[in-house]
Structures
1.
Amino acid sequence: MKTLPLGNSGVEVSAFCLGTMRFGSAHDETISSRMMEMYIEAGGTFLDTSNNYAFWVKDCTGSESETFLGKWIKEHGNRDELFVATKVGFNTPAIGKSLSAATIMSECEKSLQHLQTDHIDLYYAHCDHRETPLEETLTAFDALIKQGKVRFIGASNTRAWRLEEARNVSAQNDLAEYCCIQQRHSYLRSNAGVDASVQLEANADLLDYVAARDITLLAYGPSAHGTYTKMDQPLGGSSAGPDSDARIAALKDVSSETGATPTQVVFAWMLQSTPPVIPLLACSTEAQMQENLAALQVTLSAEQMTRLTDAGV
Ligand SMILES: NC(=O)c1ccc[n+]([C@@H]2O[C@H](COP(=O)([O-])OP(=O)(O)OC[C@H]3O[C@@H](n4cnc5c(N)ncnc54)[C@H](OP(=O)(O)O)[C@@H]3O)[C@@H](O)[C@H]2O)c1
């Protein structure tokens, strides 16, 4: 699979990251394993999990995804070939929202155990936590890097100005800095003023920020939960409006010009953006995985990229 630089980390990662949020919980072991196999057979090596996936599923506690991955990777003996990302800090009944040094240190140990590994390649602050001083959070992450337990750090659900603050704190204190940002991002965008609570969308500010700094945007929710497969149905929710009409029209046009499905066009648009956006691929079936992976073969012209990006502006 094609690779892309991960911010200023100096490493390259797979152009598609595999989102494993539902593995071992909403998705049983059989389908979770199949998704892993298909992704890895396509050459992918970049896995995304969290210390809280998926506590909201009935009878689950939040360690299911990490535990599934740990077992799968051990059985396949391929830890060294993979780049594993996990996260800390999101509000859960068991842990509570926190990026304190104590939470980061203790949750890292638990994640290492669940993942059955001695290091995490990329460790995210899962959401911003303004009650904890950035210096405390970054000092804890930096200590984990010095201990060899973490290689790189990233942020998620964090606004651009807070990323810049964090970057300054790292520079002033000689601490590791966030190399990437994971935010909600798809082709359709929410109407202005929509309160997404903690799950922040990559807004114009953030897109401008990542273009100006050496920091990679990773898109969660890229397929907008299959929305682009049902564009003839009325669009509900926070994206519906004049902007979405124009964007759906552009997507349909580019889809018919290229022969790619609308979902594939969305993934190709992300990968060919400047700077490229890495989508977090999540699929419930083999057919979806095949369709989405094939987006790697879709090439959009410069004119099509501009038309898609500018639609609805
Ligand atoms: N940092 C954060 O706060 C955060 C938040 C959420 C997620 N994430 C990460 O991002 C990953 C992806 O997030 P997400 O699951 O919300 O992404 P998504 O792309 O919005 O949704 C994935 C779902 O969309 C449907 N889908 C995908 N491809 C399709 C296709 N070609 N045709 C039809 N339907 C398709 C499937 O749902 P159906 O079951 O309906 O078919 C699939 O399970 C997660 O696994 C997790 O790793 C991070």
Note: The mean pLDDT is 96.
2.
Amino acid sequence: MKELDFHTLAVQGTAPCDEKTGAVATPIYQTSTFSYFTADRGAALFAKEEEGYIYTRLSNPTNEKLEKNLALLEGAEAGLTLASGLAAINALALYHCSAGDHFLVQKELYGGTYELFTKHFPRLGIEITYLTEMTADAVRSNLRDNTKLIFMETPSNPLLHIVDIAAVAEIGDGAGVPVAIDNTFASPYLTQPIKLGATYAVHSATKYIGGHGDAIGGMLAGPAEAMDAIRASTYKDLGATTAPFNAFLFLRGLKTLPLRMDRHCANAQKVAEFLAGHEKALKVYYPGLPTHPGHELAERQMRLFGGMVGFEVAGFDDAKKLLDGLKLCVQAVSLGDVMTLIEHPASTTHHGYPEEELAEVGLTEGYIRISVGLEDPGDLINDLAAGLDRI
Ligand SMILES: Cc1ncc(COP(=O)(O)O)c(C=O)c1O
């Protein structure tokens, strides 16, 4: 049979209904622990001589279904679901890196990820090199014998740089260093990093996977052997489990992911084009604009250009005038919600970056990030136009 289309896979997952009961929605196994019925079976489960559920921090049927469906959509062998995107990043990075190891990271990242790496990894004896330009050449020339992981985002948060996944993955592969892509901004509908050669796709499921701004979660997808090993170590030991109810919400979110992404992307293109023609928007960042430096790469690497748009006004004072005048776009961090969310990264999500680092990555005091929602694009544009008129 012809390979199934993404829309079909998103709706049906690995199986259209619960194999035991026929339930079309995956039941929420709202239980912390599972009886092993006999002492012998308990011992066999712990000794891994038998497969089965023990305790929800280790695995849970609702979470497991989500893991399988995400792996399917990412084209990965296996998945893991964790309590948040940062928990997923932490579990992955600490699985690979120990004291004395080296970790190669893009400098421009979600501020929380940057704070996790800068505050905690050095005190654990893990050395990090941050790359301002995440090009294949920069990666090649900064690899060391003790480099254990390469980590990057594309499109990046918040400046929407596009990184060439295949080119970086080739370097990582040649050196035997796993490459992890934070695929939160693209979602598996727009980019499948593993199919492009990366080892892992990483998600804040809080964003497009959930899609409705009502649950925090994170996911990993990658080789089955690695996922099993992570489950048995940093997944289990750091304790950042997804609540089964949240897994249920993410399972539901995945079903409509492609439909929502189509609309997010179409709306974002219209908003970006409007901003590009507005004199108060001094510079517009959107991979779907031919003027974006990553436009051609995005055309090759992404199905569509994403739902995130950035633009610059003259400074924080102008940004405040605009933001405080908006009626529809909601001032809040996070993204991928059905509702349009807008924020000023330098004072919020990226507040943890020292000023000189912000300057180095090119994030200015006038930069505004929009997660374009599913509202009518004309209404959004009118709202932004009214805000820009206040400058
Ligand atoms: C690109 C990216 N990765 C990871 C995270 C962290 O995800 P969470 O908030 O679910 O921990 C975020 C949060 O905004 C993000 O934007």
Note: The mean pLDDT is 97.
3.
Amino acid sequence: MPTEATPQFDPETIAVVSFDLDGTLLDSRTAWREGFRAPFAWLTTRYPALAGLGEAGEVHDRVYQRYLDEAHLAAGGGEWSVDYMRQGWRDLVARHAPSAATTDGNANADAAFARYEASWPPLLRLFEDATRVLDAVHARYPMVLLTNGNTAYQRMKIEMHDLAPWFAHVVVSEEVGLMKPDPAIFAHAIAPLGVAPASVIHIGDTPAHDVAGARAAGWRSAWVNRDGRVLEGAHVPDVEIATLSGILEVLGLR
Ligand SMILES: [Mg+2]
């Protein structure tokens, strides 16, 4: 089993380091969950039955997140859309406050969604070690940022934390019309740098996107596994790290 700080390759063979954004550099999940609380409390004042679903953070993780996934899947599982978040709020009302008239239910759900759209972005924070890791890696390697998501959200996140200056190339899936794990978006990310695929390592938190895609593209991969998750399927990374800063030892930077 790969373990933290046990490189499965010689760091001297690495020429470029690639980072995923959400869940890797940026603690988006906390922003989504914490931002959910106030709109959910507001919606519960309209539909008291929603309170029976449980504590807001739990409702976000267990119920709302599932509705987002279902909406995404129903749409074919392609590029992320803000519509899935709107649908998630509508599903909360439609499925758990069934006595609500559909029109009013959707109007109130949409109002909660609008509040949510305002509440989660200001809560976005980089992981505590992200700046230190970016500085240390940047001192030695050219870096690329390779993120799945819609342009408006991803560019907002990048701008908010002034991330672009660190990277030789920033690649947002919607902008290029390709998504991880498609190896074509990995190839696109390093095209301007003229390096061999095997000399690139991609660091990400989602094995099915980050590890599988990197492997299909002929890159190395490091899986950031902060929660001690069990590896999904056959997406085995070259190295597993428990925190982002684990990559520094992998790359021989400390
Ligand atoms: Mg991610």
Note: The pocket of magnesium ion is lined by residues 20, 22-24, 204-206 (CB under 6 Å).
